[in-house]
Design goal:
5 strands, elongated, alpha/beta, 8% strand, five-stranded mixed beta sheet, 380 residues
């Protein structure tokens, strides 16, 4: 009896679904050809198209040899690459394996996500071969410029490549900027020597903003809030109150700097934070309450994640308060009271554990509901 081979293409970021509107999994040569055409019409330069055509080519080669039964399939993940996309890949892979019943797999991809996809597939069926497809580009400088321009145009690639580069530049610049501030050096000569690191810091900062698509995010955010203001959403009122608390926190923190002698800038920053911290936390809680009220008015439902987030926020605040109190007390800028420090830490850790347990319970409940829904759909 001949063994059956599955030639499999895995689209981890679901370009076929997002761009080509293809519903995966796709099984069969004709179906995969149609899927490749759909993505090609939406984005002719996507490398996943070539991966599908390479899989079809391998399928035809194996079929001509006649030594093994063969089938070709395409499965997709999720545009939010990570645990969501991997979970989607697992679900679709199991559907394909159930329908095709192959003995082995030939994995075809563009090489970008192979290290993530390979363990998922190999844990469920033996992989005989991995085929990496590289798209030919124009040689020399023109090709390099072309590739860089494509990275800059694609929001996902900007986040993947540019954002880490920006963080590296920022961290390197902080290595040169940090020591003078920590040492409390403020003379004009030393500050003039920091001009270059400051420029480098700004370059890295703007690369981070561009890498994370901050301009687009701000545009969407401003559009959403303009719509809320026009519709008379109660969230706007709560946001204004939370902004007042933030402003009050900044004022209280600033005024506290004149309450006692501060020996260094880092300790001054810690003293400022310790006095402004809880006003900032209250501001965040008020904002979340406004979001909760707005959702309840619109849907008559209470968002349970608000409760979990609020408990977690208070817990983090207590732990941060304990840490700040301990540092300031042993720097002769506060009262040494180990009992108070212990109570703050214990309360903060307890709230963090409660928050984690509630979040785990909610996740389990959601997964159970989705499993029940899928089971009902299969029965139907």
């Amino acid at each position: 009896m001949m063994k059956k081979t599955l030639v499999l293409v895995v689209d981890r970021d679901d370009d076929f679904g997002v761009k080509g509107k293809v519903e995966t999994p796709v099984i069969g040569v004709e179906e995969c050809s149609v899927a490749a055409t759909a993505l090609g019409m939406a984005d002719p330069e996507d490398s996943d198209i070539n991966a599908v055509y390479a899989a079809i080519n391998i399928y035809k080669e194996i079929q001509m040899e006649g030594k093994s039964e063969v089938e070709v399939a395409l499965i997709g993940g999720n545009e939010k690459v990570g645990h969501r996309s991997d979970a989607a890949i697992v679900d679709e892979l199991e559907k394909v394996l159930k329908e095709v019943s192959p003995d082995r797999v030939i994995l075809v991809g563009d090489g970008a996500e192979d290290k993530y996809v390979y363990p998922i597939v190999s844990s469920r069926i033996p992989i005989d071969s991995v085929k990496k497809v590289y798209v030919k580009q124009a040689p020399g400088l023109e090709g390099t410029v072309y590739i860089l321009s494509k990275i800059l145009e694609d929001p996902g690639k900007r986040k993947r490549f540019l954002a880490p580069l920006g963080w590296i530049i920022v961290l390197i610049s902080l290595v040169y900027i940090g020591p003078p501030f920590v040492a409390n050096i403020g003379d004009g000569t030393s500050m003039s020597n920091l001009t270059t690191p400051f420029v480098v810091f700004l370059i890295g900062f703007f690369i981070i903003l561009y890498g994370y698509n901050t301009v687009e995010w701000l545009s969407v955010w401003s559009t959403k809030w303009r719509a809320r203001v026009r519709s008379g959403s109660v969230t706007v009122t709560f946001v204004l109150i939370s902004l007042l608390f933030i402003l009050l926190g900044l004022i209280v923190g600033y005024l506290s700097l004149g309450d006692l002698y501060i020996p260094s800038i880092p300790l001054g920053a810690l003293w400022f934070i310790s006095n402004a911290l809880w006003l900032m936390i209250f501001a965040l809680l008020i904002y979340q309450i406004g979001d909760l009220v707005d959702m309840y008015i619109a849907t008559k439902r209470i968002k349970l994640s608000f409760i979990v987030g609020s408990i977690n926020l208070v817990g983090i605040g207590l732990i941060a308060t304990a840490a700040l109190d301990i540092i300031l007390a042993y720097s002769d800028m506060g009262i040494k009271n180990n009992a108070v420090f212990s109570m703050e830490l214990i309360a903060g850790v307890a709230l963090a554990i409660i928050s984690a347990l509630l979040q785990r319970h909610m996740k389990g409940a959601i997964e159970a509901a989705e499993s029940t829904k899928d089971a009902d759909a299969d029965v139907a």
